[in-house]
């Protein structure tokens, strides 16, 4: 069998590269290569105790610190993000819209900010973007490590009994978040 000219081979590889680039930009590449945090699915979600930096009034306890244990009995959506992260900026309004639609159900949405102290102000970000759900700050990175977060944004769904039911890395659309929540409840 005779190979085509080298130029057509380059064109084929170029086309594949373009498809992969578009796939990556749209958030599909993380689904092709699952994140290490996906290994948590089916296991008890690691507890944490983090400072609430925005929208603490959305929590029933109105505490300065939030623990996952405090939310037992409710499904929880953890959105790991940072103020400097472009895909995170695309995801937070999606998460907020779902949080508002599901506000009357037994589910709590929590934004877990992963910014270093000099990278951004998550409280200011939450106010300027009119986010309705509580934001906590993982300054030490311990919670991100416990959840094996290696890419942002990472969305973790926790069932009302405290088990991780789903993990998504990259921008997740509202319909998918709602589908995952229905499975978790």
Describe the protein.
The chain has 185 residues and is α/β, with parallel strands linked by helices. The chain folds into two domains: 1-33; 35-184, 3-Layer(aba) Sandwich (Glutaredoxin). The protein has six helices and seven strands. The protein has a seven-stranded mixed sheet. The chain is globular and about 35 Å long. The termini are far apart. Mean pLDDT is 84; it is low at 22-31.
List keywords for this structure.
single chain; 7-stranded mixed beta sheet; 34% helix; Glutaredoxin; alpha/beta; 6 helices; 185 residues
Indicate the structural class: alpha/beta
Radius of gyration, in angstroms, nearest whole number: 19 Å
Helix content: 25-40%
Mean pLDDT over the full residue set: 84
Query: How many strands?
Result: 7
**Main beta-sheet annotation:** 7 strands, mixed
Quick structural overview:
With 185 residues, the protein is an alpha/beta fold. It has 6 helices and 7 strands.
How are the SSEs ordered, and which strands pair?
Elements (H helix, E strand, L loop, with lengths): L5 H20 L3 H4 L16 E6 L10 E3 L7 E7 L4 H16 L5 E7 L8 H7 L6 E3 L4 H5 L7 E5 L5 E6 L4 H11 L1
Parallel strand pairs: 3-4, 4-5
Antiparallel strand pairs: 1-2, 1-5, 3-6, 6-7
């Amino acid at each position: 069998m005779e190979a085509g000219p080298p130029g057509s081979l380059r064109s084929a590889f170029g086309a594949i590269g373009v498809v992969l680039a578009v796939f990556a930009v749209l958030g599909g590449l993380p689904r092709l290569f699952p994140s290490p945090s996906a290994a948590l699915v089916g296991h008890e979600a690691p507890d944490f105790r983090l400072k609430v930096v925005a929208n603490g009034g959305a929590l029933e306890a109105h505490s300065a610190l939030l623990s996952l244990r405090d939310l037992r009995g409710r499904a929880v959506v953890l959105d790991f993000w940072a103020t400097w992260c472009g895909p995170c900026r695309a995801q937070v309004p999606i998460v907020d819209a779902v949080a508002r639609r599901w506000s009357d159900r037994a589910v709590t949405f929590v934004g877990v900010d992963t910014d270093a102290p000099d990278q951004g102000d998550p409280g200011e970000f939450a106010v300027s973007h009119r986010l309705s759900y509580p934001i906590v700050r993982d300054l030490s990175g311990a919670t991100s490590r416990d959840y094996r977060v290696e890419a942002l944004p990472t969305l973790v769904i926790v069932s009302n009994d405290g088990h991780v039911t789903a993990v998504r890395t990259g921008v997740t659309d509202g319909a998918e978040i709602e589908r995952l929540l229905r499975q978790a409840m």
